[in-house]
Structures are given as structure tokens and as C-alpha cells.
Amino acid sequence: MGTGSLWPLALLITIPLVILLYILKRKYREKEVSSSLLWKEAYKNTQANTPWEKLKVSIMMILQILIILLIIFALMSPFLKFGGKTYKNLIIVMDTTASMSTLYERDKTRLDEGKEMTKEYIKSIKESTNNYIIAFNGTSNIETKNSIDEVTQTYGSGDISSVLSYVRSLGEGLEEYEVLVVTDKNIDLGDVNGKVISLANSGENAAITNLSHKFVEGKMKVIATVKNTGNSDYSGDFSLYNGDELLKVESLDLPKGESKTLNFELEDFKGDYLKGELSKKDLISGDNTYYDVVSNNKGKKVLLVTEKNVFLEKSFNNIENVDLYKTNDVNNMTEEDYDLYVFDNVTPEIMPKKGSILFINPTSNEFFKVENKEELGQATGVQEELSKYTKDIKFTLSSYKNIELPYFGKAFLKVDGNTIGFLGEINGRSIAALGFDVHNSDFVLKKEFPILVYELGEKLIKSGILYKNNYKAGDEIVIKGTPFGKSLKVKSLNKNYIGVTQGSRYNSISELGLYKVQEESNENEKSEEMFSINFPTDEETNLGEENIGEENNLKSEVKILKKGLSLVPLLLMLAIIGLLTEWILYLKGN
């Protein structure tokens, strides 16, 4: 037998106080009676010369002392030890990955059940045991908690075995320890001393594994894939929404383990996102909804027209989500449209009708005029037009061209008052120019060169605040921002993320759904983009019976887990029985 604490023993001082109450002389009231048979007892009471009387053993006193002892013993949290050694340190690993959100019993998820079991286990061991609680969210970021109640559901995916190296390191610093792993996945503890509670269960479930779109000839083609990941046949409805507006409904009949691809065609789509939803409730609610944010900023095409400029090619290759095409002759240009045309040392006679344009060492054209300057010059940046990374730029030119700044442009590079670099927008198209051949300068040797080209590219193709707009939970989300952004905010329905900067990375966002990223530029212009986080269906939705084994049966693990039987409920029950007995005796006049 063991106890959780000894401090309640101090309450034993109340027992002498109870005995003291029974030896205090009781006061009697005079009362006339019709008989003198009681005079002997009255005489005995009047003979006492002190406030005390001889202690008389009373069943009531014995019951009261016994009740006090029972309550004191209960406060000491006694338990019967059996089933193995009790360790001084308990390391608890709680799996919080997406599959732990599966319903286990009624309205309880696997994680809820695991938390309740762990609490009971902690109650059954000594209160003096040190508990170390680790939440595994599927990433390499180990989260430690102060209590089981702090463990919350996340939606990442990952191999829980990866946490064992951390457990071993933690255990090396402890005198003796045991590990308790609560998960729904297979894990081999190896040389780690501990137990695994597997909460895997099977049942009915279907998941939306993909929802995506593309535009073809002005129409939106939508593809959705639904898979039966449960242990029985599935039937239900798939609904497609434009935001909250219902667009399409299709019935599904899926045999166990089968999937179905649905195709839709939408005309004149105007909206921010698509939503796919399964109507039927099953064991996993998170995989019944899938978001697909629609963005025009991704997959930009850039055509580089140059004889041979390795510096430019490498710089444009650094821009994310850009497909770079190259040609060495302007006459080789096809009728295919590009988001950005880069003309290096060449100026086409007929300009593209669409897309942005970057001229490098150009001649006069329909957008602006140039004047040759065959002289040495020192180029400097116009600070208010450049980012903090390029505002102090300086480089030397052997020759350059003075650009007559068009009305729609703003200069960002100058040589002695002459404009050699500008950026502007006309008729919805962005136009920029660098009035020099990069080979006739030491610009390419400066660290600012690739940064300036990158920033120009970002401005011209407007690739947006995000690299992409749709993620699976656990994916790394990079908030890249734009070159001239000064503040960023990330918002979800239930939380705002503060301290967001360009290049901020997140891989442990715990909520599924839609998020908004807001950016304010140096010119107080505000822009906003959305991204979605969806359930990682490929790794976390298998509810087939082949996932369940005898060793994973929770009911068979309960007896193994218990290190001791708490005596607190029994002692409190006996104390209540004692109180009821005392009350009955009091009513009978004992």
C-alpha cells in the first residue's frame, strides 16, 4: 500500500478535541417531576466540584472518531500497489495528429478517450511522481505541457516513433522513469521502458482527398476525389460550393476501399474559393470538407529574350512559382501569352498586347524614349522607390542610356540626374526599364543585383503575398510578402497570428479551414490573400479493420495500465455510512 501525501495526519489533532467535548460537564436544567425516583442521579450530578466529568465510552463518540480517521486517511490518497514497480518519473506522450480526431465512443474522439485514460492512470500512482507531458503534433516541434488538459487536437501527420529519440534524451537525465504513449498508430518502443495505449478503431468513413481547379478557354474545370476509407460500403452526397453558394450536388455509392473522381465545369466563375462537402456524418468530420482557394497570382509564365545572359537567367529562376522560357531571337516569339516579357539588349518592333514588360538596355519605343550616354557614370538608387535591401545600391557604368521618364513611371535608378531605371503602370500593364547593358557595369558583382531583379520580377508579375494558396495540415506555410510590404497579419476564424514578418514559416497551425493574409505597403496600400488548410487525408483517414489488432484493444489494456487501486472512494463511502449511522442513533436518543 502507498499514500499520495502525509500532510492530512496533522488533522489527527481534532480527535482529542472530540474526546474533550465528551468529558466536559454538562449543564442541567431544573425541572419539576411527579416522582422522586430520579433523585439519586440528580444527587450524583450535584456532587461534581469541577467542570469535568469522568469519560464515558459512547458509541456516538466512537463513530465520530472513526469518521474523522476515515476522512483523514482519504485525504492522504491511499492506494493498493500491484502490477509492477512504481517509478519516480512518468513520461507521457500524447498523439495529437489528425487521426486522433476520429470518433471513438459516442461524442468522444480518440484524443478525448486517451486524455481520460491518462488522467485515471495518473490518479492511480503516487502524487509525488513527476509527470512529463509531451504532445506530438506530427512535426519535429516537440511541445511540452503542464497538464493533460492543455493537450489539444491538432491536424498534422507524422510518424510518432520520431519522438522516441527525445524521450530517450529526457530519460537519461532522470533517476528512473516509465513512458506511457497514447496513440492510434503502431509504435515499437524498443529499449524504452514503457507501455503503449493504442486507440485505433474501425468504422464508416469517407474522405475528400482532393479538390482542385484550372481554367480552360474561360471556363473553370473542377476535379474532386472522394475515397471510402472505412470498413464498409459508403453512400452519401457530395456538394460543391462557391463560397456559401451551392453549385452542384452528386450522389455517391462507394464500395470499401474504392475512390471516385468527380468532374465539374463552371462558367463565369466569380469567387474566392471552392468548398467540397460530404453530407453524411461519419467517424472523422475533418475530412468531410475540403477548400480550394482560387487565385490568379500563381503559375506565372516569363519569357526571357536574350543572346546569353546567365546573370538574368539565374535571378529570374529564384522567383517562386515562375515558369521561365527563353529564346535568343525576338522573331522566335510565338502567339502564346506570357505574364512577363524580358527583352535584354533587344527591342521588338511590335510589342506584345498583353503582359508586363521589362526592357534592359532598350532603344526608343512606344512607351518611352532613350538617349545614349557613352560616358562613365556612378549609378545610385532612389531610396523612397526601393526596398530596404536595395535602397543603398551603388555601382559603376562604362556607358548607359538616359530614359525620358514617361508620365506613368517612377524612377528608381539614376546617374547624375539621368534616369536609368523606372517602373510604372499603364492600361493595366506594368512597364519597367534598365537603361544599360549589365555586362558594361559591375552591377552583377554586387549583392543587390539578384535582389533588385527579384523585386522587379515580383512587382511586374504580381506573384502575391503567398507562394501557394492551398495546404494540407502540417505543411510548411511561408508568408513571403511583397518587396514593399511593411506589415503583415494572418487571420483565421478563431485566432490572429501576430509577429508575422516576410518569410514567416508555420507548420503547426492547429485549425482546419480558411485563413486571410493582409499586407500594408509603404504607400499605405492594402492587399489581401487567402489560403486553406485541409485534412491530411492520405495519411490519417484509414479506418479499415486491417488497422486494428488484438494488441490495440483498449479494453484489454486497462488492467495492464493500473499500477494501483485508489482507496479514496471506499473510505469516503464508509465515512458517509458512519455519518448516517450517527444520525440514526441520535434520532433514537442514544
UniProtKB/TrEMBL annotation:
PANTHER family: BLL2463 PROTEIN. The keyword Membrane applies. Residues 6-78 form the Aerotolerance regulator N-terminal domain. The keyword Transmembrane helix applies. Coiled coil: none annotated. The chain crosses the membrane at residues 6-24, 59-80, 565-586. It comes from the Bacteria. InterPro entries: Aerotolerance_reg_N (IPR024163), vWFA_dom_sf (IPR036465). Keywords: Membrane, Transmembrane, Transmembrane helix. This is Aerotolerance regulator N-terminal domain-containing protein.
